[in-house]
Write a structure and sequence with these properties.
By secondary structure, the chain is of the alpha+beta class. The strands form two sheets. Strands 2-4-5-7-6 form a five-stranded mixed sheet. Strands 1-3 form a two-stranded antiparallel sheet. The longest helix has 24 residues. A hairpin with an 8-residue loop joins strand 6 and strand 7. 36% of the residues lie in helices and 18% in strands. The chain has one domain: Heat Shock Protein 90 (2-Layer Sandwich).
Length: 222
C-alpha cells in the first residue's frame, strides 16, 4: 500500500506540473499585475502554513529599488512555488530557504532562492530546466523532472531568464535565480488564462500572488 501511495502521489505531482506548463504557455503576452511584495508574501505564507514545511521560508526585497515594482503575479507565483518546493525538498530538516529580490539594470528584477541542501553537480547545471532531467545526486529523492522546467518556461514567457549559482565560499546549498522585466504601472490587469487557472487551483480570485496549492510537493527537475 505504501508503494501504491507513492506512485499515486508521483502521478499527481506530474499532472500538476503539466498543468503548470500548460498555464504559463497560454497567451504569453497577457499579464495579471501585482506588487512584487504581494507575490512574495502570499506565496511564502501559503507554503509556510503547510504542516509539511513549517515556517522555514523567509523573504526580503530591497525597498529602495523595487519596493513598488509590479510583476506578473500568475506566472511568477507558479515559478516561485516550484522553486521553493524544490528547495525545501532537497534541504535538511529545520533549515531555512531564503528569497531575496532587488532591481538590476533598467526595469529588471533579480530574484534569488537559496537553500542549504546538496546543491547541483557542475556537470549537470547546463541541463537544469530541461523536461524530465534530474541531476545525478538526486537519486533516492522522489521527483518528476518537471519542476524546474515549469520555472524556466514561466520566466521565459515573462521575457526573462533562469539560472543557477553555487553559494559563496564553501557553504552548502544552491542558489536559483530569475531575472525578468517589471511590468509597466499603466498596464491594465488582464484576466488571463494563467490567472484563471491559478485562481481556480488556489481557491482565490483576483490578481494577488497566484500559486498552486501549498500541499503539493515540489520536485527539483535537477
Amino acid at each position: 500500500m505504501e508503494l501504491l501511495g507513492e506512485a499515486i502521489q508521483s502521478l499527481r505531482d506530474q499532472v500538476d506540473r503539466l498543468l503548470d506548463l500548460n498555464a504559463v504557455a497560454r497567451d504569453a503576452r497577457a499579464a495579471a499585475p501585482a506588487s512584487l511584495a504581494t507575490v512574495l508574501r502570499d506565496t511564502t505564507e501559503r507554503i509556510n502554513q503547510s504542516q509539511e514545511h513549517g515556517s522555514r521560508v523567509r523573504w526580503g526585497i530591497d525597498p529602495t529599488t523595487c519596493g513598488d515594482t509590479l510583476v506578473d503575479s500568475a506566472r511568477l507565483g507558479i515559478a516561485l512555488h516550484n522553486l521553493i518546493g524544490n528547495a525545501l525538498k532537497y534541504s535538511p530538516p529545520l533549515t531555512s530557504v531564503d528569497i531575496t529580490a532587488r532591481a538590476v539594470g533598467r526595469g529588471q528584477v533579480r530574484l534569488e532562492v537559496r537553500d542549504r541542501g546538496r546543491g547541483v553537480p557542475a556537470a549537470d547545471r547546463e541541463r537544469l530546466g530541461e523536461a524530465y532531467f534530474r541531476a545525478s545526486n538526486s537519486a533516492g529523492t522522489p521527483g518528476t523532472g518537471l519542476g524546474l522546467r515549469v520555472v524556466r518556461r514561466a520566466v521565459e514567457t515573462m521575457g526573462g531568464r533562469f539560472g543557477y549559482a553555487p553559494p559563496p565560499g564553501d557553504e552548502p546549498g544552491a542558489v536559483f535565480w530569475l531575472e525578468f522585466p517589471a511590468l509597466d504601472e499603466n498596464q491594465p490587469a488582464t484576466a488571463t488564462a494563467v490567472a484563471r487557472h491559478s485562481s481556480r487551483r488556489s481557491g482565490k480570485g483576483g490578481a494577488s500572488a497566484v500559486a498552486p496549492t501549498s500541499t503539493r510537493k515540489g520536485g527539483r527537475s535537477s
